[in-house]
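for the recovery benchmark. tokens below, seq after
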């Protein structure tokens, strides 16, 4: 009998996965396809890179559910529960996709995370404007955000064990709170206490859930890590109910060193916070970093996949150590099979990636086999 991944690590942490490709949105698929075609008109395929073929739209039931149900005991929606999808216009809520996601997880017997209540990207953009197109006041935007958090909480809080309250609020430029130069409107409209208020409201709306502040590259960029540390330390001193730091952990075969991951987990854990890995994948490319040239698509050879497997093993060994120390609580992979990974066609149009534990056909990769040995 094939061993279950979550069973392997159940003494230490839950093992989760993000669900994508769950529901086929024909209109959205057409828009993405058209956007890609237009992009390629002005960004020709680099010499030597294989041609990228637009995938056929998914049909039928969620194709990865057998794997999801068998190997993971925690689940999160990659896109279906983000504010722009949930609340696309004033007074309009799209509960259908979130309801289906919750139903799927319950049928599978899985714990459920919510991603995310507040984010600068995929936000409910209408919240920032009056009906005449002018900017809203601070008071109106605060009320709209509060109403949104309580509406989501009223409907789903009893099903949710963990919620990303604020996502990616640390600037990549000055490592304080993001501003408009870093693509976020929240600081301009609401001032620096918007993070505190979001957590205060979330605590009331989701009384039984862990409240997470989530960000990327904390394990890679020391200055960003310290920026988050300063923020959450101040929140704790002010009595703000943040209890968990989420490390997205979009990493690659070489970086960051395992030691950096270990030090990051312990930095926040020693503050008395839970630490969870929220969006892990291990790219076979190293170019999504400042100053790195974009690599052409590689052949996913047995040697390359074995290198990835050893990388996963080293990092999961670190996770076990940090879980034993009482710091790490959950590990969530950002996808199930390579076929639905967000890394396909990003950051390099026309290039696939192979960052997950199962290949495009749903077969276990060496990384999976290494983790369950």
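predicted aa per position
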């Amino acid at each position: 009998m094939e061993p279950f991944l979550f069973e392997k690590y159940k003494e230490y942490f839950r093992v989760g996965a993000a669900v994508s490709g769950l529901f086929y949105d024909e209109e959205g698929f057409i828009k993405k396809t058209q956007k890609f075609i237009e992009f390629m008109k002005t960004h020709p395929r680099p010499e030597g890179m294989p041609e990228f073929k637009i995938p056929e739209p998914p049909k039928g039931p969620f194709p990865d559910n057998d794997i999801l149900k068998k190997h993971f005991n925690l689940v999160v929606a990659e896109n279906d529960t983000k504010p722009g999808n949930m609340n696309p216009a004033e007074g309009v809520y799209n509960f259908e996709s979130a309801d289906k996601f919750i139903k799927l997880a319950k049928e599978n017997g899985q714990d459920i995370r919510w991603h995310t209540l507040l984010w600068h990207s995929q936000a409910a953009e209408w919240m920032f404007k009056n009906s005449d197109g002018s900017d809203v006041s601070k008071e109106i935007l605060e009320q709209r955000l509060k109403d949104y958090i309580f509406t989501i909480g009223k409907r789903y809080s009893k099903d949710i064990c963990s919620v990303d309250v604020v996502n990616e609020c640390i600037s990549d430029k000055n490592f304080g709170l993001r501003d408009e130069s870093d693509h976020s409107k929240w600081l301009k409209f609401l001032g620096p206490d918007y993070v505190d208020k979001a957590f205060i409201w979330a605590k009331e709306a989701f009384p039984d859930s862990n409240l997470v502040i989530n960000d990327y590259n904390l394990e890679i960029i020391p200055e960003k890590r310290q920026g988050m540390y300063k923020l959450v330390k101040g929140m704790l001193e002010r009595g703000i109910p943040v209890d968990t730091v989420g490390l997205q952990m979009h990493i690659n075969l070489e970086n960051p060193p395992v030691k950096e991951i270990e030090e990051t987990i312990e930095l926040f854990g020693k503050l008395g916070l839970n630490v969870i890995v929220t969006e892990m994948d291990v790219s076979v490319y190293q170019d999504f970093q400042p100053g790195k040239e974009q690599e052409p698509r590689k052949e996913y050879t047995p040697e390359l996949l074995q290198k990835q497997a050893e990388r996963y093993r080293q990092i999961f060994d670190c996770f076990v150590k940090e879980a034993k120390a009482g710091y790490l609580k959950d590990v969530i992979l950002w996808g199930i099979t390579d076929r639905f990974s967000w890394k396909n066609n990003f950051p390099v149009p026309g290039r696939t990636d192979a960052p997950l534990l199962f290949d495009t056909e749903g077969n276990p990769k060496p990384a999976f086999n290494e983790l369950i040995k």
